Amino acid sequence: MSDKIRAFILIIGNEVLSGRTHDANLAFLANALNEIGIQVGEARVIPDDEKIIIDTVNYARAAFDYVFTTGGIGPTHDDITAACIAKAFNRPLIRNEEAVAILKTHYPSTDLNEARLRMANTPSEAILIENPISKAPGFQVENVFVLAGVPRIAQAMFENLKPRLKGAAPVISKTISTNLGEGLIAGPLGEIQNKFPDVEIGSYPYFGDGKTGVSLVARALCEDDVDLCLEEIKVMIESLGGKTIFSV
After folding, report:
1. Using an 8 Å Cβ cutoff, are 82 and 93 in contact?
2. What is the pLDDT of residues 83-117, one digit of tens each?
3. Fewest CB within 10 angstroms: 53, 70, 92, 104, which?
4. pTM of the complete model
5. Where do the domains of the chain lie, and which CATH numbers do they carry?
């Protein structure tokens, strides 16, 4: 597929890698970005490690149009994302006065301690991302958008930064499923893929309720290409004696 605008999603946090926290941000961001014509080309989950964060951010911001990070911008000692982003861009980490003013609207002066003020630290010249839930803002540096790890806060931040993003045509995705196994359809499916180079075909086996089969997902920028591809897949399934279970 051509004319792609591509994004990289970076999930930061030891708690995700340990399994203590279930990540919900990747699915949300991938779906929300695709709706505005931005395709997620890669995603990684990494620990709260300064060198790994810096190296990954520098790789991603050079290789992708947009980078979205989640996690590591809270008030505790292990929230190091802001400092790492500053180092990745070779900018000083500052106490952002605009962010401080926002925190002052949320916390009584007696509760706005140094730990909470750490949430106002950003790289210099960063553009804030509004957080309507807990007020502590995210921020943007060039093509990197830094969001909270808490899913409902990350989602609210994304809604506020979305007008800054420029997308292309959204990807069209349609599915057809069959009771045939992957081994039987693998060869013919490969031939169909070669015939439709602008369509990405994914094969996903399913098991449950005594039923087995494969869901075949066709994705492309052009809906006509997707429809033509799925029609050939349907003909292939029927020629092998299979049934089309459902199509979307």
Report:
1. yes
2. 999 999 999 999 999 999 999 998 888 888 999 99
3. 92
4. 0.80
5. 6-164 (3.40.980.10), 172-247 (3.30.70.600)
